[in-house]
Amino acid sequence: MAQPTNQRAARLTTGERLTALTKATQFYWWIGHVAVLFFGTLYYVKRPFGWREANWYYTKAYMGALMSYTIVIYKTYGPPQLNLAFVHRLIVDENVEYLLLAFFWLVMRPMVVTLLPFVVFSLFHVITYARSTLIPTLVPGVTAEIQRARQAERSGGAAGRLSLAARVSKLMGDWSSTYNAPALREVGVWEVAVVGTWVVLGAVTFQTPLLAPPFYFQFLRMRYALSASTRAAFLRVRGFLDATLTPPSASANVPGVVTDTYIRVRDFLVNIGDAITGPEQQQQQRQQRQ
Questions:
Q1: I want to staple 129 with a disulfide (CB 3.0 to 4.6 A). Which of 30, 99, 230, 255 is the partner?
Q2: What is the spatial distance between Cα 129 and Cα 126, in angstroms, rounded to a whole number?
């Protein structure tokens, strides 16, 4: 009878297990996310002290993003195919959308607000891979140890003291489970409200290329059509602006022209959103606004 995979892995040396790990393309996908997290964090640390040096980290972070998204897309679809069905599958894939966005931000003049969503995504990818793959490779029995501890907790027995590797892995898993969904919700709002506003104001003041707004709003259009979380982010932003700028909750100090302009822009964007979503999605959004 064949031995279980974890038993076979335990017979290998640590060096052999790590060598096998580095032969998998997923390892290099992880390295790309490590680069985004590492260089992105350094960018935000260095940025207040000078943009020239910080921009080097900005560039390296986006190169890491391109590496990771390219790998996952190739793993999913294989070599490019010259047919419309293949192109359509790429267009509706969020990894392709973020690959194109990362490339666009890389070749454009650096904008401080654009990198944060990629850093947040990479943080959770790095944690998940380290917990599910890297730590079990270094300590093969850690997964079984955590499972035994959880079974003991469910049965009301004493879980026993976990090893350091098991405690670190469990902490990573618990932290990711707690903060992943809230963080992604906030990232969605950041993409809609902060990056969108920054791109528009930058173009108006000639601080960013005029190509940036149409490109970024096409990205948001695709995300709105395909992602429930992006639609929820738009609803949150709309709820905040409605409460701030429209009666009866708006302050009396808000000029009428501001309210009228906001309503016109809001209704224009709502019509665009309704045009790219189906009746079922529109009904869900109306229910959420009520």
A1: 30
A2: 5
Q: How many whole angstroms separate alpha carbon 175 and alpha carbon 160? A: 21
Alpha helices of the chain — where are they, by DSSP H? 5-11, 14-22, 25-46, 51-77, 84-91, 94-107, 116-129, 135-138, 142-154, 164-189, 196-204, 212-226, 228-245, 256-276, 279-289
Cis peptide before 248 (omega within 30 of 0): yes
Is the predicted pLDDT of residue 218 greater than 80, yes or no? yes
pLDDT at 13 over 70: yes
d(CA 175, CA 215): 35
Q: What is the C-alpha to C-alpha distance for residues 197 and 205, in angstroms, rounded to an integer?
A: 12
* 206 Rama sector, left if φ>0, alpha if ψ -120 to 50, beta otherwise: left
**From its phi and psi, is residue 278 left (phi > 0), alpha (psi between -120 and 50) or beta?**
beta
Per-residue model confidence as pLDDT tens digits over 84-105 = 999 999 999 999 999 999 999 9
